[in-house]
Structure formats: structure tokens, C-alpha cells
């Protein structure tokens, strides 16, 4: 099969028809397959562990802390050193430079020094002849004779940390207007609490790094990372070397999901340290359980809220406190908490509001980026709050949502002061209401529930508005390097990383489109810090916005030089030169692209160029939490319908209709994949993935046997995912919109549909079902019990007949 073959999988409701922006071979807006699709399915794609090992390669493994918080009294590592195959054992004392791999504050030791701050923290590294022997020796960390500890008091949960006033960063506080007065004066009020669990990234390829020493104190580090420049930086600091001595390369990741934005650093550092000490190549690959025990996850959160509202449920004043479990160090928690603050509004106008976010310091893994980056944790509580208002007023939660939507030209300023000037919430919701048939199904559901004593159905529509840009303005920059070789083939390097999201495919489409070439003529190479310097993480969904623009800039510069030459050769003006279908034409004449390139080489025209992009408009005042943090917003909405078994708490997702705004999609096949994947991943977070630490602070759910991510069988049989026809109001690359993270918020509709079904089981209850997330069967039964115990609940025996079994 040829790489340029176009697959258009026809199936019900998979979005708009392919729309070609330009009629050349690398059409934009066409559902081309992922650039590595064949390699992925055939198993030929090279991940870090597949790189051919250099002669003399050694393997590292980590010895982990057995306590959540303890002083290290002594270490006697002789037994480890004497274990079979062991070449070296390294501790913090072996680090020549800085013992830190934290991205913002310097509070993340690579190897524990003096104290351990969570159970699972790496204390020493074993370097051995094989992976297996290294792991066996590292497992001796479990013995009391090897590391002796003096346990200290451990704080494990956000609630405990809040009570003890232990934070990794100062609280964030955003206030607009006078919410207290508005709440006091409101005709209706609601107070509540809520909690949502964390989430393990569960990338299929675990954390891994492979370091090879080079001449003159140099180091090449292959790292499975979203942030090669940061890996270069932390390795250089650790070795006390200049950055130019370290190269970090990443061809692709088997998923990152935020978990490799900062936390690939520990693995890169240990591999590089071991390589520097032994003068041999060293690979460090964490197995799944160690990966779970060592690395941070999505921040779980506990909330307190209070709101005042009118008869229609329109909010007049709101107060919320979001207490996030940061773990033992700051990592990216400050930016995560800021995004939580900036997404509490979700799709709704909040005139008078008070938002507090706390980064609670606990003796657990240091929580980090995960798809949505605090945005989901901010917006979820708003949806729960609106659901509570609807239950209290006994009206459809959809109508409460609609009553609070941001307006167009009025009621359109976010709490942080940015105007929502690209609002498409109303037309997008109307389109979804239409295709999902929400209102008719709501009525049908009520009829079903009246007849069905045990099984209860629920439905919910939830919207998403997600701000696009890094909320730290300087990170919104990118670079690229484009080479056109003498034969007319093109090589692209950019600062972004490929983790399955299709970034390289989109960037290749953009560059191929500039030159009017088929996609097969453009190759995107591994991300490499020696090619593009000082890159940002591939994160905040900005990968194609930033790197697409940078690569386009580079290609445009080369194209301008080629156009000038073509005009000289063929006559006419450079501005009129067309690049399409592999040929270059102007003034009635044409020549193949390759021929023009060769002529350019002989005429000594530069055939390669750098490119750069910095997102316009973004600014942010971190003191007042106001500004214009986002270049634009991406929107979406979903309707989910569930059925629950009120005796067992089991449930099933019956149907999903999702409509998502990817602007003018560069590649609808890839974007639909992102929406589907984001939906199922978010559903896993909210329903089945449960992280559980025992009272010693040991994470007990550290493998797929106990931690349940959604499987393909959890995908609803009726899963209608569509892209909303839209165009970015901002001049992004081909007016597309970022699509990586926003769809993760669409399955809020699943959680709210579960609450709807629970409410249906207890008619008369005027409180929302106190359903926590993840909504496991246990949580569903707990919520049913709690709701039945409320004074308004009508616990009269339901009708005996079950229509599903009749
Ligand atoms: N899709 C796949 N297949 N694998 C991933 O690891 N990460 C998500 C999202 N989609 C991810 C993914 C996250 S957290 C982000 S920020 C974006 O992709 C990053 O890529 P982009 O900016 O190029 O969209
Ligand atoms: N997303 C991901 N990573 C980040 C962000 C963000 O918004 N801000 C700083 N680092
Ligand atoms: Mo994504 S959480 O910004 O890596």
C-alpha cells in the first residue's frame, strides 16, 4: 500500500465529507491515514525499547522507598552490589551536578537524599548486565538490611493536607464581583461537596530512556518524552555539563497523555547518570508496576461549593474551592491548578464568582499533567453544581445549562477577564439536540423508568469550552527545520513529539501542501534537540497549532526562493507561481518540482530553512489571575444515555452522540480518532479507573489487574461522533483547532447520565444523587442508599413488572 492512499471509512455519522482546501496531492482536510499507521499495526514502529542496542549496553533498575515519609537512617548496599550481574549501584551521592529533575521548582530529587517523601520514590539505581538481573538486585530494596528508615508522619489525602495547611505552592484565588452578596440575595441557594479521583496515564509504552556516552563528555539520550528539550536540560544540570553536550531524541512515544511532559525526566536522568559513571550505554525501562508506583497521575480533587440562583437556575453568585492532591512536590501543579481555575466556568457566564484552588502537599506520587491538565477537574464541579440546581428546581438539567451559557456580545467575559469572542455553544448544542433527539428520548426515558423497577435509565447533555494555549505565555513558541534535497524529496524536523496523536501526519500535510507534493515526498524525522533548540513540551493540545505554523513558515521561505527562480526560468512574476501536483507552473509554463529544485541547487539557492512561530495575543498576570491566556476556545458537546441496575450498581453506556469543534480539520480521520479516544479515556477516569492507597500510603492499584481502564467492549454500540463544521476565527494553520485534550471533557455526560438514572430510582428526592467519581458500581450503590435516606425521597415500592424481562 502506498502512503498517499486515502482511506475514507464510510460509516454512520463520522463527520463532514472530506473537504480539500487546495487541489494538490497533499490536500488539507482529507482523512489521510496516520503517517505510521502501517508500522503501528504491523509492529514495525520503532519505540525506544526497539532501538538496536549498542555493544556493551547495560540495564538499570530502581530500588524504591518502602515508606510514604521517612528519614533514611542508613544504607548498606553491599548485598545489592554483590548480586549476580551487578556492575554498579548509584545513589544521590553519585550525582555530579544537581540532584533534581523537577520542571519548575527544584524540589524533585532524582534519587532520594536523606528522606523519602512517598512510597515508591527511587532511592538507588542498580546497573547490571541484563534487565532481569538489574530488577532482581533492585528488589533487595525491600529488605530491612539494605535501607533502614525512621518513619515520619505521612499525610496522604488532599483533605488531610488542607487541614494541616500543607501546600506545595501558595493557594490561587480569583474573585470577580461580590459573590457573597449575590448568593445571600438569591431566591435559591445550594451548597455542596464533591470528589473526583485521579487517573493513571496508562500509556501503552511505559517510561523508558536509553543513554549512550559520546566523545568529549557528550551524551545521547533516547527518551520516550513529550519534552526532549527539558530532558536535555535536566540531564545537563544533573551532570553539571553545558546543554550543548547533551542530545535528546524521540522518534515516537507509545502514548504520553501528559505523563511524559515532565516525568520522563527521572528515567532520562538515571540512564544518563549510569552511562556517565560506567562509560557504557545504559537503558532504563520501568515495568508497569514500578511505573505506577513512581510516577504522578492526574490530580484527584475534593470540592466545596455554594451558589445562588433564580427560578430558571440562572447563577447569580458562585463560590468554589478546588483542593487538588499535588503529591510530594510541585511538578506542574501550579499550571494545572491555574487551568482548573480557568475552566471552572466551562461553558457558563459567571458574573460574580470566587474560585480558590489549593495544591495540597501529600506523601504520594507527584501528580502531573494528564490530558486536560486541570481543565477537567475545574469544569466537572460546575457541571455537578448545575445538575444539583436542576434537581432542586425539578427541571431538566439541560435547561439549567442553557440558561447559563455564555452569550454572544453580552454575558461573554470569563472570570479571568478574557472575552469569549468565538462562542458557538448555542448552534453546536442545537445541532446536537437535533441529531441526538434529546428531548424525545428524555420523554421516552421517563416512560421507561415508570415501568421498570430495577433497571433505570438516565440521559445527559454536557457542553465543553476549552481554552487553547499553554497558560504560561512564553511556552507558546515553536521551531522547525525543513530540508529540500536535490532530488526534490523533503525532510521536516520540528520541535513537537509524536505520541500517536497524528502530529507528524498533520505537519507533513502542511509542508507537502506548501510545495504541492504528495505526502510520500515528505518525511518527518525524530524530534532531536540538536536540530531545533529550546522547544516547548508537546502539550496543551498545541502541537499542530505551534509546530504546523513553524514548519509552514520554514517551507514558505524555501518556496519563496524557489518561486523567484521559477519566475526567472519560466517568465512571469514570483507571486504568480503555483506549486501543485508535483509541478511548478507560472506564465503558461511548468516544470517538475524536482527539476526546479535541482536548478536551484546549481544556482546556489538555499534549499533548507528554519521556521518559527509564536502565538499572538496571549498574556497572563499570574498575580491577579487575569489576562488573555488562550488564543481561542475549542467547543464540543455530547449526549450520553445509560442504564443502571439498581440492585448491583452495574451499568451500561447505551448510546453516545458527540459533536466536536476541530475548526477546519486538517485531517478529519485523525481528529475523529482524537475525539473518540478522548471520550473513552475521560469515561474511564469518571467511571472505572480507581486509584487506591492503603493507610501506609502504598498504591494498591498498580497494574491492570486492579486498575480498570476501559476496554474496547466498553465503547457504546451506538457511538456517533461528528466534527462540527466550523472555522477558527483566528488565523491558525488552515483555520484548524487543537483537538487533543478538549474531547476528554465530553464524557462528563456519562457521569451526569448516571446521576440522572440514580435520581430516577428515587422519585421525589430534591437533592442530586451524591455520586462521587469514579462512579464504580460501589459508588452507584452508595449514592442510591444515600439518596433514599433523604427526607424527600419517595421510597414506596416501585411497580413490580420489569419491561425488559416481560
Ligand atoms: N493521543 C494519543 N494517541 N496519544 C497521546 O499520548 N496525548 C494527549 C492528546 N492526544 C495523546 C493523544 C494530550 S495530553 C495532548 S496535550 C495532546 O494529544 C498533545 O498532542 P497535540 O498537541 O499534537 O494534539
Ligand atoms: N498544558 C500543558 N502543559 C503546560 C500548560 C498547559 O496549559 N501550561 C504549562 N505547562
Ligand atoms: Mo497534555 S496533559 O497537555 O500533555
UniProtKB/TrEMBL annotation:
<dbReference type="InterPro" id="IPR046867">
    <property type="entry name" value="AldOxase/xan_DH_MoCoBD2"/>
</dbReference>
<dbReference type="InterPro" id="IPR000674">
    <property type="entry name" value="Ald_Oxase/Xan_DH_a/b"/>
</dbReference>
<dbReference type="InterPro" id="IPR037165">
    <property type="entry name" value="AldOxase/xan_DH_Mopterin-bd_sf"/>
</dbReference>
<keyword id="KW-0560">Oxidoreductase</keyword>
<feature type="domain" description="Aldehyde oxidase/xanthine dehydrogenase a/b hammerhead">
    <location>
        <begin position="42"/>
        <end position="153"/>
    </location>
</feature>
<dbReference type="InterPro" id="IPR014309">
    <property type="entry name" value="Xanthine_DH_Mopterin-bd_su"/>
</dbReference>
<dbReference type="InterPro" id="IPR036856">
    <property type="entry name" value="Ald_Oxase/Xan_DH_a/b_sf"/>
</dbReference>
<dbReference type="Pfam" id="PF02738">
    <property type="entry name" value="MoCoBD_1"/>
</dbReference>
<keyword id="KW-0500">Molybdenum</keyword>
<dbReference type="Pfam" id="PF20256">
    <property type="entry name" value="MoCoBD_2"/>
</dbReference>
<dbReference type="InterPro" id="IPR016208">
    <property type="entry name" value="Ald_Oxase/xanthine_DH-like"/>
</dbReference>
<dbReference type="GO" id="GO:0004854">
    <property type="term" value="F:xanthine dehydrogenase activity"/>
</dbReference>
<dbReference type="InterPro" id="IPR008274">
    <property type="entry name" value="AldOxase/xan_DH_MoCoBD1"/>
</dbReference>
<dbReference type="Pfam" id="PF01315">
    <property type="entry name" value="Ald_Xan_dh_C"/>
</dbReference>
<protein>
    <submittedName>
        <fullName>Xanthine dehydrogenase molybdopterin binding subunit</fullName>
        <ecNumber>1.17.1.4</ecNumber>
    </submittedName>
</protein>
